[in-house]
């Protein structure tokens, strides 16, 4: 999945050229073409630059420009993005075949393409920095959306900034914001989680974190895993938690489903989910102040655990008896065992099966 919802959508006819007096002028000049990359056969022929790049002390000044691209509908490519791509000396892109179609739609020709994807980003960094040092303008795009958002580009930007290279941006469509503002959920405070880990402890911990997160959360998910993720979210957060599912944003078959997590899981299993998906999850309700203080719970834990009762049963009994979350009592039990009955700071070994973490299921 890219930083936007990928794929080709309906391609509307390009509109009239905007009034240049209205748009901010973006001055990107061409320069000598880079040496051809033998790994990128079939790239366009180098263009002849019309103007030299800006000069600083007699030397050309290069920089990196991140260019946001459409998340599905090619009509969303901005005039400023087109000029940035036209004015670059080389374009690094996630998939040269995909970007070549975008450039053809925009009428951009003669700018060589280089691949920069998940598997080669690290080895491309030195190449990009060397080009900038030689005065070239390097544009970076992903297949859709903004480079670096669940897409290649973030490591390149970090290296460029660390080397003192100028990094600028031409913003564009965003699947994150498009899904958020159409969700009907609070937008004043939100966070972006990207893709959840697929399995194991990392996934369980992330789901547990989302269950407690009070901000609206935006997630990406592949269509084949949407149903399973919705079931896991319902188990962790409660089936009543609200969710919005945005599918095929900006494209012909755009669909936005809104409802509870339990109903969403049913919806997702009723038939195959097609297209790339953005989930927007409502935040957890603010935690109420505990009616029972930790000192009361710890004292009861200490009395019963010191008497040799099993930890699991004690935690369950105290949580149920006081109407408090089991996890809270469990963490107090861990803290009490870590300090020891005398509070001397003993260092116990890892908890055994009797003190297993509470299940999220």
Q: Can you tell me the CATH superfamily of the largest domain? A: Tetrapyrrole methylase, N-terminal domain
General shape: elongated
Number of strands: 12
Q: Which CATH top level class of the largest domain fits?
A: Alpha Beta
How far apart are the termini? 28 Å
The tally of structural domains comes to: 3
What can be said about the biggest beta sheet? 5 strands, parallel
* Helix/strand structural class: alpha/beta
Low-confidence stretches: 1-14, 18-36, 41-53, 343-354
CATH topology of the largest domain: Cobalt-precorrin-4 Transmethylase, domain 1
Backbone CA Rg: 27 Å
Strand content: 5-15%
Q: What is the H/E order?
A: EEEHEHEHEHEHEHEHEEHEHHH
Helix content: 25-40%
Descriptive overview:
Strands 5-4-6-3-7 form a five-stranded parallel beta sheet. Strands 8-9-12-10-11 form a five-stranded mixed beta sheet. Helix 9 packs antiparallel against helix 10 (311-322) and helix 9 crosses helix 11. The longest helix is centred in the C-terminal third of the chain and has 14 residues, at 326-339. The protein has three domains: 1-173, Tetrapyrrole methylase, N-terminal domain (Cobalt-precorrin-4 Transmethylase, domain 1, 3-Layer(aba) Sandwich); 176-281, Methyltransferase, Cobalt-precorrin-4 Transmethylase, Domain 2 (2-Layer Sandwich); 294-355. By secondary structure, it is of the alpha/beta class. It contains eleven helices and twelve strands.
């Amino acid at each position: 999945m890219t930083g936007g919802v990928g794929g080709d959508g309906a391609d509307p006819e390009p509109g009239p050229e905007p009034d240049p007096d209205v748009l901010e002028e973006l001055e990107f000049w061409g320069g000598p073409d880079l040496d051809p990359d033998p790994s990128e056969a079939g790239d366009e022929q180098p263009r002849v630059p019309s103007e030299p790049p800006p000069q600083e002390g007699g030397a050309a000044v290069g920089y990196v420009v991140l260019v946001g691209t459409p998340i599905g509908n090619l009509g969303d490519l901005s005039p400023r993005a087109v000029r940035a791509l036209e004015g670059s000396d080389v374009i690094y892109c996630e998939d040269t075949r995909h970007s070549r179609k975008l450039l053809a739609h925009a009428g951009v020709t003669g700018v060589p393409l280089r691949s920069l994807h998940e598997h080669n980003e690290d080895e491309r960094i030195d190449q990009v920095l060397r080009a900038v040092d030689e005065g070239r303008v390097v544009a970076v795009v992903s297949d859709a959306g903004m480079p670096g958002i669940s897409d290649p580009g973030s490591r390149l930007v970090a290296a460029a900034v660390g080397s003192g290279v100028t990094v600028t941006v031409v913003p564009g469509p965003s699947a994150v914001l498009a899904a958020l503002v159409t969700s009907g959920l609070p937008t004043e405070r939100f966070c972006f989680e990207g893709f959840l880990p697929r399995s194991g402890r990392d996934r369980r911990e992330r789901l547990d974190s989302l269950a407690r997160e009070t901000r609206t959360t935006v997630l990406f998910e592949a269509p084949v895993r949407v149903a399973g993720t919705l079931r896991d979210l319902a188990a962790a957060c409660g089936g009543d938690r609200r969710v919005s599912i945005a599918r095929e944003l900006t494209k012909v078959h755009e669909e936005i489903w809104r409802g509870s997590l339990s109903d969403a899981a049913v919806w997702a299993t009723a038939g195959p989910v097609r297209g790339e998906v953005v989930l927007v999850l409502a935040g957890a309700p603010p935690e109420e102040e505990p009616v029972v203080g930790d000192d009361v719970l710890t004292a009861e834990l200490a009395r019963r655990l010191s008497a040799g009762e099993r930890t699991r049963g004690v935690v369950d009994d105290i949580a149920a008896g006081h109407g408090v979350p089991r996890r809270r009592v469990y963490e107090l039990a861990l803290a009490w065992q870590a300090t020891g009955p005398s509070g001397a700071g003993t260092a116990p070994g890892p908890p055994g099966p009797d003190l297993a973490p509470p299940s999220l299921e």
